[in-house]
Write a structure and sequence with these properties.
elongated, 10 helices, alpha/beta, 8 strands, eight-stranded mixed sheet
C-alpha cells in the first residue's frame, strides 16, 4: 500500500492547524487526488493552489465526491453543528480523522453512525510550524491501512504515532497537548529569575527563550540519548548547574513531583471533558 491518496481528501476547517496540515500535504504530494476545503475564510490562501477546491459550506460538497479521508479540523464546540452534513459519506473506505480536542470516538460514532471508520488524533500547537507531535487512536473498524494513511497525513506537521487504547489520549493531551504551555512557563520563570539575579529584562527574556529552544534542538539532534544523560553532560561536579539542580530535583518539592502532579491533574480534566462529549 502507498501512503499517497488517490481519491480526494475533504478538509473541514482551515485555520492555523488545518492550514499547516494542508500546506504540508501539498508540499509532500501525498494528496494526489486533490483536496476540497470547507472554509471560505481560512481556505482563501489556498484557492489558487493546484489541486485545491475551496467551498463555503457542506451544501457545496457534491455527494459523488467519494473522499478517501475527511479531516475534521474545526473547534470542538463547532462539531455538533456540522457532523450531520457529512454522515452521508460514512461507510466502507471513507476515513474520518478528527483533531478536535476532547471529542471521543464514541461521540463521533453516535453522530456518524456505526459504519463510520474513525481515527481520533491529538496534535499539539508546534504542528502549526511543522514541529508538532500527534498521537492517533482508531476505532474498531478502521483498518491498519487507514491508520498508516492517517499517520502519513499527520507527519506533514511533525511526528506521529498510533495507540490502540483511547484512554491513553487523555495522558497524551496532558503531556504533549499542554506541553508547549509548560515550556513557555519555564521560559517565563527562568526570565523572572534572571531579572531577580540582576539581569536586564530584555536580555534575561532572550537568554531564557534561546536556551530552552536550543536545548530542545540539542535533545532532538542527540537521537536516542536520554534526557538524564544530556543533563549529566552539562552538569560539572561542584559547579553552578549542580547547585541549581539540587533545588530543582528535591524529592519533596522539586520539579519532578510537581510535574507528576500537574500531568495527573491535566489527565483528570481531559477525562472529565471526554465524558461530557
Amino acid at each position: 500500500m502507498t501512503d499517497t491518496l488517490s481519491r480526494p481528501l475533504l478538509l473541514i476547517g482551515c485555520g492555523k492547524m488545518g492550514g499547516a496540515m494542508l500546506d504540508g500535504w501539498l508540499k509532500s504530494g501525498i494528496v494526489a487526488g486533490g483536496v476540497t476545503v470547507v472554509d471560505p475564510v481560512g481556505g482563501d490562501a489556498f484557492k489558487n493552489r493546484a489541486g485545491v477546491t475551496v467551498v463555503a459550506g457542506a451544501n457545496e460538497v457534491p455527494d459523488d465526491l467519494n473522499p478517501e479521508v475527511i479531516i475534521l479540523a474545526v473547534k470542538p464546540q463547532q462539531m455538533d453543528a456540522l457532523l450531520a452534513d457529512y454522515r452521508r459519506f460514512a461507510g466502507p473506505d471513507c476515513l474520518f480523522l478528527s483533531i478536535a480536542a476532547g471529542k471521543t470516538i464514541s461521540y463521533f460514532e453516535t453522530h456518524l453512525g456505526d459504519r463510520a471508520e474513525i481515527i481520533r488524533a491529538m496534535p499539539n500547537t508546534p504542528a502549526a510550524i511543522g514541529q508538532g507531535i500527534t498521537v492517533a487512536c482508531p476505532n474498531t473498524i478502521a483498518s491498519d491501512a487507514q491508520s498508516s494513511q492517517a499517520e502519513a497525513l499527520l507527519r506533514a506537521v511533525g511526528e506521529a504515532a498510533t495507540v490502540q487504547d483511547e484512554a491513553l489520549i487523555d495522558a497524551v493531551t496532558a503531556l504533549s497537548g499542554g506541553g508547549p504551555a509548560y515550556t513557555f512557563l519555564l521560559m517565563e520563570c527562568m526570565a523572572k529569575a534572571g531579572i531577580a539575579a540582576g539581569l536586564p529584562e530584555d536580555l534575561s527574556a532572550r537568554l531564557a527563550l534561546v536556551t530552552v529552544a536550543g536545548a530542545g534542538q540539542l535533545a532532538l539532534a542527540s537521537g536516542d540519548t536520554p534526557p538524564s544523560t544530556l543533563r549529566e553532560n552539562v552538569t560539572s561536579p561542584g559547579g553552578t548547574t549542580l547547585e541549581a539542580l539540587k533545588v530543582l530535583m528535591r524529592e519533596e518539592d522539586g520539579l519532578g513531583p510537581l510535574m507528576v502532579e500537574a500531568i495527573a491533574a491535566a489527565t483528570r480534566r481531559s477525562k472529565e471533558l471526554g465524558a461530557t462529549s
